[in-house]
Amino acid sequence: MKNTIDNLLKSEKIRGVLAKDVSMKKYNSWHVGGAAEYLYKPRDVNDLSVFLQLVKEEKKITWVGLGSNILVRDQGVEGIVIVLHPSLGKIIFLQKNKVFVEAGVSCVKLAQKCAEKNLTGIEFLSGIPGTIGGALAMNAGAYGSEIWDFVHDVQILDTKGVMYQRTKKDFDINYREVSLSQSECFVATHICLEKAGNDFQPIEKIKLFKKERSSIQPVGASSCGSVFKNPANTSAGALIERAGLKGYKVGKAEISKKHANFIINIGKANAADIESLILHIQSTVEKKFGIKLETEVKFIGAS
Q: Does position 18 have pLDDT exceeding 50, yes or no?
């Protein structure tokens, strides 16, 4: 007999938490959206592999970390949403300045822990509001650095529960884009860093980055971080500001007055408000400057 999702709801074969019709509002940083048809929070990567092997129904899998780079639509998400944070949370410091990191670790935590070990290179991750899995999937970056600059290899799990190990050369890596199949998910990586010299303190660099971000970004507001990719030779925020859109609202969704590439939920916005605002920004900027802004944020669920 096939293991349907409903049969697994009370199964002792899995160690994580499986639930049905779960609101996604607490699983994304905009705090919007409908319910996941099913939501699974694995205990660890082995439990996740077993769960995927047991699921025999053809259900779409949606992978979520901290939910900081997704817009969950109001109609909800069909299939199974798998939340990797905080369960896939291991950080292991190895020899020769190599670090093993699971996908559910937050970028902020990894940057801080490496800085405490006097390892340098990824201080920029302290400003990325997501997990390492999401950072790998979108080649997250800031201050002229990107995470794949430091990747040695990655571990990948597919929707059948099979694990793979691959190296950097196996991927087409571009600005905010990595060639990964929708049936696969990054679950861990080895990164290679450098030991900081006596005259350099990674912790101090993180403090400087934090101070700079606080002065120009709406830190603490309900947002997804940067909404749009930066076009060549300019920034999305500058274009949006030049278009006169700072502070523009749709419902309870507002373009930040502090940084125009941020959309914030100022009340009880819904996903439709935010998506309408994104479309309005794209339309306005294209009409004024002939540039079609591409989103960094990923849309989850049927429109």
A: yes
Domain of residue 38, residue span:
5-83
Number of domains in the chain: 3
**Whether residue 155 sits in one domain with residue 98:** yes
Residues annotated as catalytic are 176, 226, 296
pLDDT tens digits, one per residue of 221-258? 999 999 999 999 999 999 999 999 999 999 999 999 99
How distant, in Å, are the alpha carbons of 42, 68, 76, 118, 121 from that of 21? 17, 21, 9, 44, 41
Beta bridge partners of 29: none
79 and 96 fall within a common domain: no
Residues 6+ apart with CB under 8 A from 188: 45, 88, 90, 100, 101, 102, 103, 154, 155
In DSSP terms, 178 is beta-bridged to: 173
The pLDDT assigned to 2 comes to: 54
115 and 77 co-located in one domain: no
